[in-house]
Structure formats: structure tokens, C-alpha cells
Amino acid sequence: MTGSLFKGNFWSSDILSNIGYETIIQHLNNGRKNCKEFEDFLKERASIEEKYGKDLLSLSRKKPCGQSETNTLKRALDVFKLQIDSVAQSHIQLAQTLREEARKMEEFREKQKLQRKKTELIMDAAHKQKSLQFKKTMDAKKNYEQKCRDKDEAEQAVHRSANVVNPKQQEKLFVKLATSKTAVEDSDKAYMLHINTLDKIREEWQSEHIKACEVFETQECERINFFRNALWLHMNQLSQQCVTSDNMYEEVRKSLEVCSIEKDIEYFVNQRKTGQTPPAPIMYENFYCPQKNAAPPGKATGSDLARRRPLPIPKSLPDDPDYSLLDNYSLIYQ
Predict the structure, then answer these.
(1) Mean pLDDT of all residues in the chain?
(2) Which membrane topology describes this protein (predicted)?
């Protein structure tokens, strides 16, 4: 910490000017405003983290994700859902941590505000006293100068009336001169008294100004250090969140490494197989020559292959009532 830069660089040659002090106060107010902005940023970031965590938690617990998978892939998905749940919880925890950091920033701001208030009250009083005494001194100076001019005029009047015969007139002039000299002496004493008082007040004000500069510079060093550390810590917290999430994701990757495609296929087959014999070909069945001991449709074995035979040629038997005559295109049923 420097401790001496403020008190050596914030003065003004004008005794009524407080520009140096006001410049420092404006800078401190800006610094306090910057801390408040970072505090609000942390609060808003906390709200974002909390919402994200809750949304992710809801997604993990309510949204199906490969729920019908089996065996090794199912175990990997279980780990996946579990770790996503943990990631969501970690973001909610981060939100609480950020709110705590925002609270610390607020407490720091209020602490500095109270410390500044004491110094500001002393300086405000010193500025008012300095300004008031300067005005009184200037009024005393004006009065003194006016009394001096009045005395000079009285002396000139006495010199001009040296040849005047009227003694009463001369006496009045001498009385006025004596009175003006007394007034000059009195106003001179009053003026000197105000000058001495103003100089004492000026020294007291300068002493308080130096003390205030030291207090304010110390506060500003503390504020910059606190703000810097808070920002550094915030970055560490975000980095830790990434590391934590990645560790959880690594657990999912590990579970995926032991996921076996062959085992999952084998598991499905063993659990859900329906049989090892495929259906046989459908055999041809002649309507006029039914096969004895023919297998039911769809149940014939592969060795009983169907062989297509030529259709029987009907003979023309006029005396047979079961057949119609084809030679003469007769369709009469006898």
C-alpha cells in the first residue's frame, strides 16, 4: 500500500476550493458503485445457475432417456442419469455459494460506507468552518479598508480647513479625525484577529484533509484488493464447477467403456428369443389327388418338397353323368 499519494496530489491554491477532496470522494463513490455492480452480477449469475440446475434436475428425473435399454448399455444409462442429477445439484450448490459471495461484498461495502461517514462528517464541518471564517475575514477586511479611507478623508478635510477662521468647524473636523483613527485601529485589530483565526482554521482543515486522504487511500487499497480477490475467487469457483462436472462425466465415460455390444445382443437374444426353427415351405396340394399324411400348411419339413404333377386329362364318356361332353361343345348335364 502506498499511503501517501492522495495527500500529496489533491490540493488547490484557492482556499475556498475543495476540488481535491471532491475528486477523491467521486472516485470512492465510483468504486463503491463498481462493487455494487459486481454484487448484482453475482446475484444474477446465482439465479441463472439455480434455474439451470433445477431445469437439469427436472430433465434428469422426469424425461425418459433410453428406459427400455438392457444389460450393459442400461447400466451406462443409469450412471448417466445419476451423474446428470449430480451435475444439476452441483449447479444449485454453486448458486448458493455465489449468493454468499454477494453477501460478503455487500457487507464490505457497508463497512467502508460507515468508515467513510465519520471522516466525511469531519471534513464537511471543516469545509463549512473554513468557508464561514473566510467570509468573516473578508468582511472585516472590507470594513478595515473603509475605515482607512474614512480616516484619509478626515485628514484631508483637516488640512483643507487649516486657514478656516471658524474654530467650531475645525474642532468638528479634528473630532471626526480622532474618531476615524480610533475606528481604523479597532477595525485593524478585528481584521488581524479574523486573519489569525482563519489561518488557524486553515491549518486545522489542512490537517484534517491529510488525515482524510490517508483514510481514503487506505480504503481504496482495501477495496481494490477485496474486489480483485472476489473476482479471482469467482473464477476459481467456476473452474471448480467445470472440474466437478467433468469428473461426473468421466464416470459416465467409464461406464460406457465397459459397455459391450456383443453382450447386449446376446442378452437380448437369451431373454427374448422365440424359437430356432423357421417355418417350412407351403406344399402344393392337388385338389383331385389329396396326399395322405400330408403335413398341415406351414408345418412341412424341408425334405417333403412339393412336386408339381400334371393335371389329369378327363376322358369323354357320354354315358358318365359326372362329365360333360367337350368334343361337340355340349354343356348339357345329364
Answers:
(1) 87
(2) Peripheral membrane protein
Residues 6+ positions from 302 with CB-CB distance below 8 Å: 280, 281
29: exposed, middle or buried (Cβ count in 10 Å: 0-12, 13-18, 19+): exposed
The region of weakest confidence among 2-6, 119-123, 134-138 is 2-6
- CATH class name, domain 19-270: mainly alpha
Cα 222 to Cα 226: distance, rounded to the nearest angstrom: 6
Give the dihedral sign, CA 202/207/212/214.
positive
Rg (CA), the chain: 56
178 within 8 A of 170, measured Cβ to Cβ = no
Query: Stretch 11-19: mean pLDDT, rounded?
Result: 94
Q: Given this model, what pLDDT does residue 305 score?
A: 44
Q: At 321, list the grid cell.
A: 353323368
**Residue 258's pLDDT is what?**
93
Q: Residue 252 has which C-alpha cell?
A: 459416465
**DSSP track, 139-180:** HHHHHHHHHHHHHHHHHHHHHHTTT---HHHHHHHHHHHHHH
pLDDT 10s digits, 130-158: 999 999 999 999 999 999 999 999 888 88
DSSP 265-294: HHHHHHHH---S-PPPPPPP--SSSPPTTP
136 within 8 A of 194, measured Cβ to Cβ: yes
Q: Which helix (H) or strand (E) holds 166?
A: none
- Write the DSSP assignment of 1-36 as a string of letters: ---SHHHHH---SSTT--HHHHHHHHHHHHHHHHHH
> Could you tell me which of 292, 285, 115, 146 has the C-alpha nearest to residue 216?
115
Q: CA of 144: how far to CAs of 147, 177, 283, in Å? A: 5, 15, 143
The letter for the amino acid at 214 is E
Query: Taking a C-beta distance cutoff of 8 angstroms, is the pair 92, 57 a contact?
Result: yes
Please report, for residues 261, 273, 278, the alpha-carbon distance to residue 147 in angstroms, rounded to integers and kept in the order given. 114, 126, 135
Distances in Å between the alpha carbon of 48 and those of 53, 54, 98, 190, 238?
Answer: 8, 10, 11, 70, 13
Tell whether the model's pLDDT for residue 206 goes beyond 70: yes
